[in-house]
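Late entry, written up from scratch paper. The run itself happened at the end of the previous shift, but nothing got recorded in the book at the time, so transcribing now.
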Amino acid sequence: MIYTTKFGVLARRSTWRWGTVTFVAAAVLGVLLAAVLAACGPSGSGRIDAASDGGQVSGAAGLGGAPTGVGGSGSAGNGEPQTGGSGDDADDSDPGGGTGDGGGDSDHPSGGGSGDGGDGGEPEPPVQPAAEDCVTYDPANLTIEQSGDAWRMRDGGHAIKLFATKTDAEDGVKVARNWTRLCFIGRDNDRADRHRYIITYFQSPSGLPFGPAPNFDCITYDPADLAVHGPDGDGWGLRAAATPLLFLASAADAERARLVAAGNTRLCLIGHGNGQPDPSRYQLEYWRQ
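Output as recorded:
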């Protein structure tokens, strides 16, 4: 009985000790298994998941930010656009800010940046007309005389104008006696064919009775259509719509001619089509209402 009892007590002690060892071993195995799973699980560096997005991404990515290598640089934000930058991470809804190719457009009406566009610079100042250049004569003292193969209109001892024919000279007197001043545009030009660029007109009515009418050779125009074009070739042209009127040596001369023409409706010529080697020298221009 004693042996049995002792044997029974020893058996219970052995069973308790084996159970203890088994529990400790199981705990150790559990710890080892957890360590292995931790080393191989998805909570590591994240490179496998990142590769599915097209490559490794560094930096933290927020809802509105751009991690390094995706359209910008710097750490991601909280969804607010980055200010002061350029490129794809600029705020497209803001018309100001970064740099661009030009001023405003339909998407960015207020511009704000610098670029190739602009307002075209300051407008050029208006051309000032040439100063008036006139000589005064006595309309009651006008005569004509032959000079070589031409005819000259004179005021006493002063030559006023040269004509190709006697008829042209007589018509010149008929016009000139209605005024007291003969004015020139472009008389100071230094062109080789300078007479081509000299235009004449009259000022200051004389009040003398109208004499016989000259042979009128006139171009009628609308003053509202007058415009200066040029430089056109070697000079500036005065036109009325598509009709060429005069050719001047400078923009200032053309502007003076435009002002004179604006107060009239007809540009008339004496000596037009003459056969002299320098026909412009023998031609007289004048205006009529």
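Confidence is low (pLDDT under 50) at residues 1-22, 40-118.
(Scratch paper discarded after transcription.)
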